[in-house]
Design brief:
It contains five helices and 16 strands. It is α+β, with helices and mostly antiparallel strands.
Length: 325
Amino acid sequence: MDLKELKGVHHVSAITGDAKKNYEFYTNILGMRLVKKTVNQDDTSVYHLFYADERGNPGTDLTFFEIPNAGSTHYGTNSISTTSLRVATDASLGYWENRFNEYDVEHDGITQESGRAVLPFRDFEGQRLVLVSDEKNKGVPAGKPWEKSPVPAEHGIRGLGPVTLTVSRPELTASVLTDLLSFKETGTFTSAKGSSTIRVFETGEGGTGGEVFLEENNDLPRERPGRGSVHHVAFRVENEEELRKWVQLFNDNNLPNSGFVERYYFRSLYFREANGILFELATDGPGFEGDEPFETLGESLALPPYLENQRESIEARLKPLDTKQ
C-alpha cells in the first residue's frame, strides 16, 4: 500500500484535575493560546482544552482533559514520560529560567540533551515538560506564537518537540515505530541525568518536531495515570484520504484499532502499541476555525455539529470557565 510518511508529532493530550488552574498556567505563565474550549467527545461531562500557537497549527497542540476526581500520577514505566515544547533560541531558555523563578515554577535549570539546549520543568500538577531550543533545528517547521501572548514573541512557545516514551520492553515499541509507522532510528544520546541511553526515532522532515525518544526502564512498575500524566500522543497524517489508508492497513493486518474516528477538528485512528501506550494518527485538517473566527478562538464553549443538539445538557454539567481574552 502506498502510504505517505507521517509528518511529525500532531498533538499530545494530558490529564488535569482543575481546568481553571490549568488555563491560568498554560496561558498566563506559558503564554500559549487557548484555541479551543470544548468537551471530551467520549465523555461530554468534562472539558477538553487545546493550547497551541496562534491558530492551533498541527504539531503545536498540547491538550488537556479535565478529570476533577483524578488522583495523583504514580510515575512509572510504559508511559509517555516527557512532553517537550519548542522555543526559538538558546537565549530564550534564559528568559524562561528567569520567568519560572518569578512564578515559582519548578524546574531543573538549563542543560543539554540530544545536542540541544533544554530546560526541564513541571506544571502545578507535576506534568513533566521540557522547553527545547530550535536554534539548530533543520526539520519540521515551527508554529507562530500568538501576538497577544504575555510572553514576547521572540521567546514564545512555537509548538511540540520530541515526546519521550519510557517502556519496559523497548524492542517492541521500536518495532512499532519503524516497521509499522515507518519512523527511522537515527541515533542515541545519554539522558540529562546520565542514567540511561535514549534512542532517537524520526519521521517526516525530522528535527525537533519530528522525533520520538525511547527510554528503557525496568526498575519501576507500570505508571498509574492521574492528574499530571499524559493520555496519548498523536502523529500527523496529511489528510483524510491518507488516514483511511492507515485504517485499511491496520484492518488488513488484523491489528486492533479504533477504526476511523470523526473529531470534527481533525480525523483520527487510535491504537495501543505493544507496551500499552496509546497512539493516535490524526489529520492535519480541517483545523479550529470551522466553528469560531480566528480572533475569538477558545473564548466560548465550542461543540462539533453532532453534539450541538446536546448543548444545554452539556453546559449544565460543566463548571463555568471564563476564557475571554
